[in-house]
Amino acid sequence: MTEFTRHTLDTAPEASRPLLEQSQKAFGRLPGLHAVMAEAPALLDGYKQLHRLFAEETSFDKDEITVVWQTINVEHACHYCVPAHTGIAKMMQVDDAITNALRDETPLPNARLEALRDFTLQVVRQRGALDEPQVQAFLDAGYTQRQILEVILAVAQKVMSNYTNHLANTPVDQVMQKFAWEKKGATAA
Known about the structure:
CATH class of the largest domain: Mainly Alpha
Oligomer: single chain
Radius of gyration: 17 Å
CATH architecture of the largest domain: Up-down Bundle
Organism: Alloyangia pacifica
Protein name: Carboxymuconolactone decarboxylase
Strand content: under 5%
Order of helices and strands: HHHHHHHHH
Number of domains: 2
Number of helices: 9
Number of strands: 0
């Protein structure tokens, strides 16, 4: 397997250095994903922008944000992002029952969150080609057309990170290793 460079502030391409400095300041460390993405400054910048937009500017609450992110991470069997987003969910004070259900692919605590997970899975598995009853079921669960489009934003963000981690086999950051995870049963989509 090709070994991808995990950059430091000293080795990163010039355009990635300010982005890595922001990461270092925000996390108190340099996340492995960012260190790998730094090889392609546009990828790192795009990923960071989509992350901020989804986390801070969508209409989803913290539980819903976690459901969308982890649903995609689990479906893609991302060995790096599932532990990372488990830690992020803890920092966001998301109930462990939600996080565990997502990681274990077991029922979520309420029907509304389950509808969000179902819809997100349909978007990922069907590559956005949903039929009208699937869309209507999401709307009937109390979600909006805006939120349909916000799920697409999250899918774009998570494709960037999940695929990078698959190709680079990014090691799980030490601080997140206590949340290590591997997909049970079937292989990733």
